[in-house]
DNA sequence: AACTTGACATACGAGATGTATGCGAGATAT
DNA sequence: ATATCTCGCATACATCTCGTATGTCAAGTT
């Protein structure tokens, strides 16, 4: 098989992102060495700086990938629900559970915002927020939710969910705390309902 | 006046924390140079490593100070309200407004969690969370809020508030977005009420 | 088949952190 | 009051990391 140049380049990008994802998750962004990271996949920093510009660029690529994965999963879970409202609750619970993954926490929730700034201004647009915002907009249009600002509601909901996850993960007994967090989250979300149950 | 040794030591600690607060806010944690920082107050890194152990220790001291200030302010504002429930709403709005301060954002919301880990496991105990938790507990005891887990509710509320602030600050027109965020926050909080209004 | 391009490797320079050692002014004891 | 000791801070050093500038060789082009 003749490997074309752009093929190997694409492969290398994938390799580097995968290696970075591991390294950033394990050591944290600042402690992750670019020399080690690149050597692990048989390359050098030359490849890295050529493809991603700098260390931040690599993190941005990793975050973009993870954010996309998370948004897709949340959307899928939300779509399986009986109605849109149940879908929103399911989405929130899904975010909480996804954020229990140490990789997600370290990279997307902690280092991501610190290095790249607030998620709403990420280059990748933050797909997670978009998904939630769309769901909220639909519910407002259906007259199920109060006519609050959709973006504000989405931000607050995802902020609450992701913060809950950080708390759960840091607790001594995550499995016992998880249901309480989900319960509290659903209570909060119910505050957006036009007609409380 | 004869300066006792522990006096000058205390003064130096105060100076270093003040300088660090400025430097961390302006450059961010990782880009802040400890050489510059200490030189600004007429000291060297020797003083720093003797007093705070390492760079992280200095950040922890700064975060502790800011967190304490924020908690005191939130508590004071909450206490001025007509009743405990209005106090909770006022606390939330206070957090959102305080988090608009770039210094608070950069240090407490972005670098703090990334470097020190989740706020709930900070050495300083995170006074902000304690204040909110206490308020929630009181409201539950009074039968005003649903009997959800107080810590979970506090975490979610403060998470929502602080995330809202990050979003507001990153927006083009913070002053127009602020009221929408506060409105959405209060709608969410109302979800915790036992008897919806 | 010669030439050009560009993806990646190599080499270098500029800081930054943390530690180990040194010093000198306050604290202590006689 | 003098001598000794303590310890808070300064100084010097070793190590590591990022980003850039330059080199190189295979893939693409004509």
TrEMBL record, chains A, B:
Molecular function in Gene Ontology: DNA binding
Organism listed in the record: Rhizobium vallis
DNA-binding region: 33-52
Pfam families named among the record's database cross-references: TetR_C_41, TetR_N
RNA-binding recorded as keyword: no
Gene3D superfamilies for this protein: Tetracycline Repressor, domain 2
Protein name as it appears in the record: TetR/AcrR family transcriptional regulator
Domain HTH tetR-type: 10-70
Alphabetical list of InterPro entries matching this protein: Homeodomain-like_sf, HTH_TetR, Rv0078-like_C
Keyword terms, alphabetized: DNA-binding, Transcription, Transcription regulation
């Amino acid at each position: 098989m003749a490997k074309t140049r752009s093929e190997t380049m694409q492969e290398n990008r994938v390799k580097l992102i995968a290696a970075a994802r591991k390294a950033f998750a394990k050591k944290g962004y600042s402690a992750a060495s670019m020399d080690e990271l690149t050597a692990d996949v048989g390359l050098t920093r030359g490849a890295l700086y050529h493809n991603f510009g700098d260390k931040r660029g690599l993190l941005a690529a990793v975050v973009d990938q993870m954010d996309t994965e998370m948004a897709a999963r949340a959307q899928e879970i939300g779509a399986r629900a009986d109605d849109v409202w149940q879908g929103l609750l399911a989405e929130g619970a899904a975010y909480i559970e996804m954020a229990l993954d140490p990789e997600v926490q370290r990279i997307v929730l902690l280092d991501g915002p610190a290095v790249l700034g607030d998620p709403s201004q990420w280059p990748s647009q933050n797909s997670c927020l978009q998904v939630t915002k769309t769901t909220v907009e639909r519910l407002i249009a259906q007259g199920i939710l109060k006519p609050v600002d959709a973006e504000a509601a989405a931000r607050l909901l995802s902020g609450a969910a992701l913060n809950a996850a950080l708390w759960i993960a840091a607790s001594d007994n995550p499995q016992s705390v998880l249901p309480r967090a989900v319960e509290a989250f659903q209570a909060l979300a119910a505050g957006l309902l036009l007609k409380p149950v």
